[in-house]
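Here is one chain, start to finish.
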Amino acid sequence: MFTRRGVSPIIATVLLVVLTLVAVGILAAFVIPFVNDSFKNSKECFEVLDKVKFDGDSLYNCYAYNDSGRTVGRTGFSVRMDTDQALAFKVTFTASGRGDTKTVENGTSLDTIRMLNGDFGTALEVPFKGGVRTYVANGAYERVELAPVLKSGDVCDTRATITVAECADPGIVAGLTKH
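Its structure:
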């Protein structure tokens, strides 16, 4: 009466292949753009690696206090920019295990960072390619980190880091604590 018929092995194989191709296509539609974006950011960051850094020759990479009670501290740091791919940088100050991050870009005014010969709350300047700028942060910090901000707006995870010591030169101390 009723004959049981199954799907032929050839049709079953074709259906499995088609199903697999559809699954791969759907997966690729989501994964490939994600991977491309990730590699794009990584490539751009790799190109600026070691090109946004602290100027190791600067005597201002230190902290000082402007009072004998050591309550009002200032931390100096000099940034060298050897690329035109970074428009700004994020700077993180660390003291007693706590960190504070600020973004420094041309024209930005911050109450906690000033140019060496400027005032707090006035416009900051980012170094041009091949240039160095020295900044003063309000507070005595143990460590300072830099992370480049690219023209695309991406922030690189690669960081330059310095451990800051107390300034020994009275002229440097005067420069950091003048305001």
